[in-house]
Amino acid sequence: MFYKAISLVFLFGVLNTNAQQNDSITKIDSTSHQLKFNYKQLIIPGVLIGYGVIGIANDQLLSFNHQIKNEVTEDIDNKITIDDFSQYAPAASVYALNAFGVKGKNNMRDRSVIFVTSYVIMASTVLGLKSIVHEERPDGSSNNSFPSGHTATAFAGAEFLWQEYKDKSIWYGIAGYAVATGTGLFRIYNNRHWLTDVAAGAGIGILSTKLAYWMNPYITRKLFKSSSENKSTSMVMPFYNGQQYGLGFVKVF
């Protein structure tokens, strides 16, 4: 039951990549390389977020959460903390692929602006909901379970990887979503989150990156209207991994 449930999150991610690939309305402008808005792209993250939000108070979904917890905790011997690192893998892959000569859709500057925007939206949403909902974690360690920050981070990165490399191969996006799904799976396996937390986190992550791409033309004009692409720019990237806050610094030449 546990594996069937978590596979639904991955299925939604794969459907998300296929829906975007097959939607003729969702085209990339050849000059600006920006994603055009299409309401259909809101369906899958909306369903995931809706499932998580409804699950906060729905008796049937709460019961399903506990069934999965009981099934998983019966088999847990040792926690596997790979999710603390895998959450960053999809986004890091975008920069790694570019470093090895596999060029993505956007240049370094625009890509980094999109990345920062996505993570600001994602982190703000996750932290805001955690402070409002106060859901207890499955292991009883704290009351900030909803939504899963690790999962949101991973799925934001997976959508980022998909958007940058979908014109190269759909398999980049599928690989990113597989890693993101694995991150969510391990959050449940390690008894740190409920399925509803993971589903909501996945939806928030996907939606945050979509919003970042839609907002990027406006943000880029405001930030760089008087600078050329070749000039040096700097930016600060916030991050949150569910326990620690931090800032990363990027300088683009």
TrEMBL record:
Name the InterPro entries for this protein.
Answer: PAP2/HPO, PAP2/HPO_sf
What is the top-level taxon of the source organism?
Bacteria
A Pfam family per the record: PAP2
Source organism per entry reads: Flavobacterium azizsancarii
What range does the record give for the signal peptide? 1-19
Transmembrane residue ranges: 43-62, 113-133, 169-188
Instruction: Please spell out the taxonomic lineage of the organism that makes this protein.
Output: Bacteria, Pseudomonadati, Bacteroidota, Flavobacteriia, Flavobacteriales
Specify whether Transmembrane is a keyword of the entry.
yes
Q: Which protein, by its recorded name, is this?
A: Phosphatase PAP2 family protein
**Residue ranges of domain Phosphatidic acid phosphatase type 2/haloperoxidase in the record:** 113-213
User: What's in the keyword line of the UniProt record?
Assistant: Membrane, Signal, Transmembrane, Transmembrane helix
